[in-house]
């Protein structure tokens, strides 16, 4: 993933927002603050908070996606070139899979929150390098799947990344919270966060005999959070963790096929991992002119009110979309089939009242 001669580093954080706030991304020169430009199509909550809290003057522009909700490298490259010509400093791209002073930043996500789309790392990595951007790969959800060789191709190009983040608490059998951040050059991170008042100075730190993690994060102290992840890795082992991921993806495949087998429903985004995005298709006699927004909201509300299963939602291409994620340790095939029965029954009731 990186040159062994470089000064790499790895830090265990609380959640994604801490990763964002921790990064050199926020070590910004006030003189260029007004010219910073961010590119975004899908934005995660913690990113919105981080930008709002730290960089209120940043301009955010939406970047075009493919029909599969991936960023389009050619369109992005053209937008970056135009902004450079306009005197702006492109420094941040929010896609799916931080920043030294005055350097632009590119943030790539593996597995978007809404639809688990994966952006083309290789192409975007080249754009980041050409624009002297910090290249961050955000694999909060889908990074766990990449422990399986057959899914590793989703992060092809990651060797160009300056930093990589994932959340083990999302899909790697580790209880909340467990957010991991790797940086290629730890000095960039340390320089943006380091503080060294007299009362914190000590011989070991001054002589670089220890890794002083106070300079890797916003808080001064921290709990021993990494122990739980170490226990998971030791107790389950590589093979069991891989089979755990594979089982969830196979169950999601089964659910996807069930959705496709019922003409009343449609899959709304390619299923890459264990998240299925789908909706109830508005019938021809449906009078609402909202692309089935109210219809699918009512379906989700009825399902969740029943207490039998719980579904979340998102909006893709202006359409209200239901999301079924397979990720619980005890989920079996019978649970997936039962969930589908609940969906079918509630849909029949809802359509019968139209």
TrEMBL record:
Gene3D superfamilies linked: Aspartate Aminotransferase, domain 1, Type I PLP-dependent aspartate aminotransferase-like (Major domain)
PTM annotation (N6-(pyridoxal phosphate)lysine): residues: 170
Obligatory cofactor(s): pyridoxal 5'-phosphate
The entry's keywords: Decarboxylase, Lyase, Pyridoxal phosphate
Organism, scientific name: Dendrobium chrysotoxum (Orchid)
GO CC entries: cytoplasm
Source superkingdom: Eukaryota
Stated family: Belongs to the group II decarboxylase family.
GO molecular function, one term: carboxy-lyase activity
PROSITE patterns: DDC_GAD_HDC_YDC (PS00392)
Biological processes, Gene Ontology terms: amino acid metabolic process; carboxylic acid metabolic process
Cited Pfam families: Pyridoxal_deC
Protein name: Uncharacterized protein
């Amino acid at each position: 993933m990186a040159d062994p001669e470089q000064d790499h580093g790895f830090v265990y954080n609380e959640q994604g927002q801490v990763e964002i706030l921790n990064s050199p991304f926020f070590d910004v020169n006030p003189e260029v603050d007004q010219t910073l430009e961010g590119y975004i199509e899908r934005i995660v909550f913690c990113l919105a908070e981080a930008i709002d809290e730290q960089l209120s003057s940043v301009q955010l522009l939406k970047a075009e996606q493919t029909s599969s909700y991936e960023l389009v490298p050619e369109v992005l490259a053209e937008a970056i070139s135009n902004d450079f010509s306009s005197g702006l400093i492109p420094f941040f791209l929010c896609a799916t899979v931080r920043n030294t002073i005055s350097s632009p930043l590119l943030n790539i996500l593996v597995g978007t929150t809404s639809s688990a789309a994966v952006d083309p790392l290789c192409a975007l990595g080249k754009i980041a390098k050409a624009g002297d951007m910090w290249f961050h790969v955000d694999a909060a959800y889908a990074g766990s799947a990449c422990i399986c060789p057959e899914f590793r191709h989703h992060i092809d190009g990651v060797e160009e990344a300056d930093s990589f983040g994932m959340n083990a608490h999302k899909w790697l059998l580790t209880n909340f919270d467990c957010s991991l951040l790797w940086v290629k050059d730890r000095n960039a991170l340390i320089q943006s966060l380091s503080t060294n008042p007299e009362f914190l100075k000590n011989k070991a730190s001054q002589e670089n005999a220890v890794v002083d993690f106070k300079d890797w994060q916003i808080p001064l102290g921290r709990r021993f959070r990494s122990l739980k992840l170490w226990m998971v890795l030791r107790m389950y082992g590589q093979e069991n963790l891989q089979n755990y991921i594979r089982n969830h993806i196979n169950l999601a495949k089964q659910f996807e096929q069930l959705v496709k087998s019922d003409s009343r429903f449609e899959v709304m985004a390619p299923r890459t991992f264990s998240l299925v995005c789908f909706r109830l298709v508005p019938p021809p006699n449906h009078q609402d002119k909202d692309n089935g927004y109210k219809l699918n909201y009512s379906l989700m509300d009825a399902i969740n009110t029943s207490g039998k299963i719980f579904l979340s939602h998102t909006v893709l291409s202006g359409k209200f979309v239901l999301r079924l994620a397979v990720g619980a340790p005890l989920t079996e095939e019978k649970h997936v089939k039962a969930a589908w029965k609940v969906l079918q029954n509630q849909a029949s009731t809802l359509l019968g009242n139209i």
